[in-house]
Design goal:
Layout lengths: L24 E4 L2 E12 L2 E7 L8 E5 L3 E5 L4 E4 L3 H5 L13 H13 L9
Parallel strand pairs: 1-6
Antiparallel strand pairs: 1-2, 2-3, 3-4, 5-6
Protein backbone atom coordinates (compact mmCIF):
# COMPACT_ATOMS: atom_id res chain seq x y z
CA UNK A 1 0.00 0.00 0.00
CA UNK A 2 1.42 3.43 -0.88
CA UNK A 3 2.13 5.54 2.23
CA UNK A 4 -0.42 8.21 1.24
CA UNK A 5 -3.22 5.62 1.45
CA UNK A 6 -2.69 5.34 5.20
CA UNK A 7 -4.42 8.74 5.44
CA UNK A 8 -7.47 7.82 3.33
CA UNK A 9 -10.42 5.60 4.12
CA UNK A 10 -10.29 2.34 2.17
CA UNK A 11 -13.01 1.76 -0.41
CA UNK A 12 -15.65 -0.44 1.13
CA UNK A 13 -14.87 0.65 4.69
CA UNK A 14 -18.31 2.18 5.10
CA UNK A 15 -16.97 5.73 5.36
CA UNK A 16 -19.51 8.42 4.50
CA UNK A 17 -18.09 11.89 3.90
CA UNK A 18 -19.25 14.32 6.57
CA UNK A 19 -20.32 11.66 9.10
CA UNK A 20 -19.23 12.53 12.62
CA UNK A 21 -17.51 9.50 14.16
CA UNK A 22 -17.11 11.08 17.61
CA UNK A 23 -18.09 8.58 20.28
CA UNK A 24 -17.81 5.51 18.04
CA UNK A 25 -16.15 2.51 19.68
CA UNK A 26 -12.85 1.51 18.03
CA UNK A 27 -12.10 -2.22 17.94
CA UNK A 28 -8.82 -3.93 16.98
CA UNK A 29 -8.46 -7.54 15.88
CA UNK A 30 -7.98 -8.58 19.52
CA UNK A 31 -10.31 -6.29 21.45
CA UNK A 32 -11.59 -2.80 22.09
CA UNK A 33 -9.16 0.12 21.92
CA UNK A 34 -11.45 2.91 23.09
CA UNK A 35 -13.73 5.50 21.52
CA UNK A 36 -13.23 8.31 19.02
CA UNK A 37 -12.63 11.56 20.85
CA UNK A 38 -12.28 13.57 17.63
CA UNK A 39 -11.38 13.27 13.98
CA UNK A 40 -9.04 15.55 12.07
CA UNK A 41 -7.65 16.20 8.60
CA UNK A 42 -4.50 18.31 8.74
CA UNK A 43 -2.23 18.46 5.68
CA UNK A 44 -4.39 15.78 4.01
CA UNK A 45 -3.50 13.39 6.83
CA UNK A 46 -6.88 12.17 8.07
CA UNK A 47 -6.84 10.52 11.46
CA UNK A 48 -8.84 9.69 14.54
CA UNK A 49 -7.85 10.61 18.08
CA UNK A 50 -8.97 7.67 20.21
CA UNK A 51 -9.45 7.92 23.97
CA UNK A 52 -8.26 4.59 25.37
CA UNK A 53 -9.83 5.09 28.79
CA UNK A 54 -8.04 3.00 31.40
CA UNK A 55 -6.58 0.55 28.86
CA UNK A 56 -3.40 2.59 28.19
CA UNK A 57 -3.40 4.52 31.45
CA UNK A 58 -5.98 7.02 30.25
CA UNK A 59 -4.03 8.33 27.31
CA UNK A 60 -5.20 8.95 23.77
CA UNK A 61 -3.75 7.44 20.60
CA UNK A 62 -3.73 8.73 17.05
CA UNK A 63 -4.94 6.30 14.38
CA UNK A 64 -4.69 7.06 10.64
CA UNK A 65 -7.98 6.36 8.86
CA UNK A 66 -6.22 4.06 6.38
CA UNK A 67 -6.26 1.26 8.98
CA UNK A 68 -10.06 1.48 9.29
CA UNK A 69 -11.57 -1.64 7.71
CA UNK A 70 -15.22 -1.15 8.65
CA UNK A 71 -17.54 1.51 10.01
CA UNK A 72 -20.83 0.23 11.40
CA UNK A 73 -22.99 3.33 11.86
CA UNK A 74 -25.87 1.35 13.36
CA UNK A 75 -23.73 0.02 16.21
CA UNK A 76 -21.44 3.11 16.27
CA UNK A 77 -18.41 0.84 15.87
CA UNK A 78 -15.17 1.18 13.90
CA UNK A 79 -12.96 -1.83 13.18
CA UNK A 80 -9.24 -1.35 12.48
CA UNK A 81 -6.71 -3.69 10.84
CA UNK A 82 -4.24 -3.91 13.69
CA UNK A 83 -3.93 -5.29 17.19
CA UNK A 84 -4.21 -3.46 20.48
CA UNK A 85 -0.47 -3.97 21.02
CA UNK A 86 0.34 -2.40 17.66
CA UNK A 87 -1.78 0.63 18.50
CA UNK A 88 -0.16 0.90 21.93
CA UNK A 89 3.33 0.72 20.35
CA UNK A 90 2.62 3.56 17.89
CA UNK A 91 4.44 6.88 18.32
CA UNK A 92 3.15 8.37 21.56
CA UNK A 93 0.45 11.04 21.28
CA UNK A 94 0.88 13.70 23.95
CA UNK A 95 -0.77 16.99 22.93
CA UNK A 96 -3.39 18.25 20.52
CA UNK A 97 -0.74 20.36 18.78
CA UNK A 98 0.78 17.12 17.44
CA UNK A 99 -2.30 16.64 15.24
CA UNK A 100 -1.06 19.70 13.33
CA UNK A 101 2.64 18.73 13.28
CA UNK A 102 3.53 17.26 9.85
CA UNK A 103 6.68 15.60 11.23
CA UNK A 104 4.77 13.80 13.99
CA UNK A 105 1.97 12.79 11.60
CA UNK A 106 4.55 11.46 9.14
CA UNK A 107 6.15 9.30 11.85
CA UNK A 108 2.72 7.91 12.80
CA UNK A 109 1.91 7.19 9.15
CA UNK A 110 5.24 5.45 8.60
CA UNK A 111 4.69 3.31 11.71
CA UNK A 112 1.21 2.13 10.68
CA UNK A 113 2.31 1.69 7.07
CA UNK A 114 5.12 -0.64 8.22
CA UNK A 115 2.73 -3.01 10.03
CA UNK A 116 2.19 -6.38 8.37
CA UNK A 117 -0.95 -6.51 6.22
CA UNK A 118 -3.95 -8.21 7.77
CA UNK A 119 -6.21 -10.56 5.90
CA UNK A 120 -9.86 -9.97 6.49
CA UNK A 121 -11.58 -13.08 7.71
CA UNK A 122 -14.92 -14.01 6.22
CA UNK A 123 -16.93 -15.05 9.24
Amino acid sequence: MPIDRIWSYAPGSGHVEGRDLTGYTVVASDGTIGHVDRQADHFGMRHLVVDTGVWVFGRSVLVPVGVVTAIDAGNRRITVACTRGEVKAAPRFRTDSETMDPQYLTSVGEYYHSLPPRETSAT
